[in-house]
Design a protein that fits this description.
Helices cover 64% and strands 0% of the residues. The longest helix is centred in the last third of the chain and has 35 residues. It folds into 2 domains: 52 residues, no CATH class; 108 residues. The protein is built from 8 helices and no strands. Helix 1 packs parallel to helix 3. It is an all-alpha fold. The two termini are 13 Å apart. It is globular, with a radius of gyration of 17 Å.
Length: 188
């Protein structure tokens, strides 16, 4: 059950309504009240919401890194935080981006997958070390720079930070999945 109070569109400020309209347009969502995911929380402060959704748009559409590695980073982060909604939303996107089902299933239960693609392994190690050790080894950093360049590594680690914020938002406000959806992680 969500901890977020419901608020009607008419009760939103002009700034909040403008942000709401932008979010539903860019996310192809029909206007019917709450948006879902972290967006309703971000509407609580329109300035904050504009900045956060702007960063999200960057990560969705303008990074130098292929979508496959973006989704892999999001799944590793979502699993680390046990973020139900994040995993629910991004598992199908990861499949569409080309991640094998076996890799996704292993990450979901906290295992290290067997990787066919070296770039997948490097992305996983970069994210796993960053979350687990709060640092990245020289070996992993060098491999990541070799694969993605410094710009790509910067994008991936900041993507992990962004989705850490998303996961914290979702977990704190206990954002529910759509009715009838199966929760990917056993609730605490």
């Amino acid at each position: 059950m969500s901890r977020l109070s419901e608020i009607s569109y008419d009760d939103l400020s002009d700034e909040q309504q403008a942000l709401y309209n932008k979010i539903i347009k860019t996310r192809d969502i029909k206007p019917n009240g709450q948006i879902g995911g972290p967006f309703d929380v971000w509407l609580l402060n329109a300035e904050m919401g504009k900045r956060i959704t702007g960063m999200g748009d960057f990560f969705r559409f303008r990074t130098s890194v292929d979508r496959r590695y973006i989704e892999l980073t999001i799944l590793v982060t979502g699993q680390f935080w046990q973020a139900q909604f994040e995993w629910y939303a991004h598992e199908p996107m990861a499949l569409k981006a080309g991640l094998p089902r076996e890799v996704i299933d292993a990450i979901k239960v906290g295992n290290t997958p067997l990787f066919e693609h070296e770039a997948d392994r490097i992305t996983f190690e970069l994210c796993r070390e960053l979350h687990g050790n709060h640092q990245v080894s020289d070996e992993t950093f060098s491999a990541a720079v070799g694969e993605f360049g410094e710009q790509g590594v910067a994008e991936l680690i900041n993507l992990a930070g962004y989705y850490t914020m998303v996961s914290m938002t979702l977990n704190t406000f206990q954002v529910p999945l759509p009715t009838g959806s199966q929760y990917p992680f056993t609730p605490n």
